[in-house]
Please model this.
Amino acid sequence: MKLSDIADNAGSRKKRMRVGRGIGSGKGKTSGRGGKGQTARSGVRIKGFEGGQMPLHRRLPKRGFNNIFRLDFAEINLDRLQDAVDNKLVDVSAAITAETLVAAGVVRRVKDGLRVLGRGEITAKLNIEVHGASKSAIEAIEKAGGTVKILNPKPKKAEGEAA
Model:
């Protein structure tokens, strides 16, 4: 095989259609855009227009809202914490915080805080400091002999405020 023998598969590259090059080409005169009017022009097109009838997006009722104060917590379950302890990723003797879990690679990012959820079993005695925890998670950790300290969530930065 030579370098000059290398070629694309047949039909893998298609030449673009050259429009507006005479009626013999099949895409001459109006270039496939039909007659005159707004849709024949470039850049302008009525997307939701239904011929004067009230458009669908205005006929449907508005619903819900976005709460600007909602906090988005990263979540971790008890079984994931126990795996981290078993694999010696976290130090059980020190307090376990969101930052130590990120540094250990157990959690990717903290977002607005870390919340512990109750799926799975935990046998290790953990002293954990998080921004939220479910009742079942707190019960399971305290049953194993550990403690849970709930921190205040990180304050959200207002838009336009310097970091």
Notes: The beta strands are 74-77, 114-117, 127-130, 132-133, 147-150. The domain at 74-150 is CATH 3.100.10.10 (Ribosomal Protein L15; Chain: K; domain 2). The mean pLDDT is 89. The radius of gyration is 31 Å.
